[in-house]
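Q: what sequence does this backbone want?
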């Protein structure tokens, strides 16, 4: 479902983060969403090419509101990334009254049912975690929220989080040894297989998952969402991809993803996370050797070599033939 929404308010909780309140132009109630869900926002191409879509988590900081029942407005938080691909720069240039095309809320990061929950957020990764905290508070479920950033001034929405979480909110900053997030120490004092939900920079997520696995956590109790697109890796080279239906051949440059190359050349591909964990861009591979970089496919799927996530994965050598 495609919606056209008006920017009704803009806030600046930190120097690099803006919050956006979006409403229907006619004031109609907006589709509901699960805690942890996100919106896809259409970002116009600066060069007049194909518009791109960027995903931003929906924020709810009011435990008295059940967003599943529909809401009067959506709220997003966006960190400006000057070295990014342009989505955050476009968002930060918006003014009240501007309009955005969005797709109805979707979720790849659902909150499950067990009562004791450990929430861990880094920086702007707090946006889906905040909605989970509001849900847990509303249900009077036991949780802790650990929120980490480089400095106290870099942490958005702290007062609202404190209002809903109280003493269950623990702030951590890298510049203060007394409060710095020490993941091993945190999990040493947690209950093994207590559900963990973590969102933030890739390094923080990897550290939390590695520490939990070392301590015996089951995979089903580890939930994460990477709040950044996968970056090119050192040693990446250009490769060729062939589209089976037309025989068209495209060159994927070393510094560009296969997904972007497909989109820029008019190939219709479904996608969402751009980080290799949601599975929406799964594409069948007719031939070629795949360099799998996703976390969605099973080891058996990767060994089989018949499907790939085109948002992050590449060719190991030669060229790929895709069933597109």
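A:
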């Amino acid at each position: 479902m495609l919606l056209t929404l008006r920017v009704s308010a803009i806030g600046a909780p930190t120097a690099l983060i803006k919050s956006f309140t979006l409403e229907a132009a006619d004031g109609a109630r907006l589709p509901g969403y699960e805690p942890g869900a996100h919106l896809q926002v259409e970002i116009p191409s600066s060069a007049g090419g194909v518009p791109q879509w960027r995903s931003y988590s929906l924020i709810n900081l009011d435990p008295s509101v059940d967003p599943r029942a529909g809401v009067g407005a959506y709220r997003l938080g966006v960190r400006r990334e000057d070295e990014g691909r342009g989505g955050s720069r476009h968002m930060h240039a918006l003014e009240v009254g501007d309009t955005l095309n969005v797709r109805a809320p979707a979720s790849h990061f659902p909150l499950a049912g067990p009562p004791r929950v450990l929430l861990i957020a880094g920086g702007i990764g707090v946006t889906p975690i905040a909605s989970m905290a509001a849900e847990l508070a509303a249900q009077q479920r036991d949780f802790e929220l650990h929120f980490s950033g480089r400095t106290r001034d870099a942490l958005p929405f702290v007062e609202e989080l404190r209002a809903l979480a109280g003493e269950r909110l623990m702030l951590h900053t890298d510049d203060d040894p007394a409060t710095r997030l020490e993941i091993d120490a945190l999990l040493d004092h947690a209950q093994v297989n207590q559900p963990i939900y973590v969102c933030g920079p890739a390094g923080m997520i990897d550290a939390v998952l590695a520490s939990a696995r070392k301590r015996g956590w089951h995979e089903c109790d580890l939930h994460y969402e990477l709040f950044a697109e996968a970056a090119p890796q050192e040693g990446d080279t250009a490769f060729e991809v062939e589209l089976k239906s037309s025989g068209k051949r495209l060159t994927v440059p070393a510094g560009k993803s296969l997904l972007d190359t497909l989109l820029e050349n008019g190939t219709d591909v479904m996608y969402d996370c751009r980080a290799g964990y949601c599975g929406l861009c799964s594409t069948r591979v007719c031939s070629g050797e795949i360099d799998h970089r996703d976390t969605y496919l099973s080891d058996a799927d990767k060994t089989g070599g018949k499907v790939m996530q085109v948002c992050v994965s590449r060719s190991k050598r030669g060229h790929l033939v895709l069933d597109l």
